[in-house]
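Hi R.,

Here's the chain you asked about this morning:
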Amino acid sequence: MVEFSRVFLDPLHLLIRVGDLLLEKLINEVLDTQVGRCTKCQKESCASCPCDCHTATLNHLVSLAKEAHCHLDFWVKESEDHGDNNEKVKKLKWGTPYGRELHNLLLNLNLAALLPSRADKIKAVWSGFLELHAAVDSDHLFSAHEINEFKTKAKAWVHKLTEPSTGDHSAKGFKSGMYSGCVTPYIHALVYHVPEMLQACASMGIPLRHFSAEPVEGKNHVHVHRFFASTHRDGGWPGEGAEVELMQIERRLFYDEHVLHLPHEASKLHTYNIVNNEKKENE
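And the predicted structure, written out as tokens:
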């Protein structure tokens, strides 16, 4: 098991995970604000409405994103409703832009053309995150004082991101907040663990941006693929869970790829150890 102190956050995945959250919040707010009540399905909220009542709004958003050098794509996906009728439910979906395009969107999108009354607040949150990400993605080795400053800025940014609304919705003094209760694991890591990573990187003389989480993400992708393609999804023999099946699959792959290519005596010894371990487990 890898020690937690040796786990480093990938700046690229930080941008994608947090940027995707900010994009999702913007799209939901734009659809709810500019469309209001759907004229076809009579839904109060159009954030996931599949009707074409907000086609003009989506086209406007796509064109503004294109001006910001980012490609956005929307589509309607059918999924099964696990209720009593098991009917197909349509939901509006969109793809997450690639890292550079997502950065361009957060930096250059004309928010005033979408949400004039909220543009300044949203822009402040986006700019604050980009400033923190730029520090993480730099070649600079941080001093202890700079790490403390980073942590203070990160905490201030989270408070700004999760600012709650104040006052009564129907009252004149109502003040709309931001996105309370939306702290994800990556946002938590940005505030409480990235400063520790910056300190560890400074002691090693290696900037944090030189680390990558691509192997971990690749491993997760392989496990998800094998879970659906090569296991019984916890529905096999009693006591044999999907985790055990995944480990057995990896052991067989490791044996085929590495042990069979060892010299004869080493391969024979390794096979002997595997058989003995299996006997002990069965006993």
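The mean pLDDT is 79.

Let me know if you need anything else.
M.
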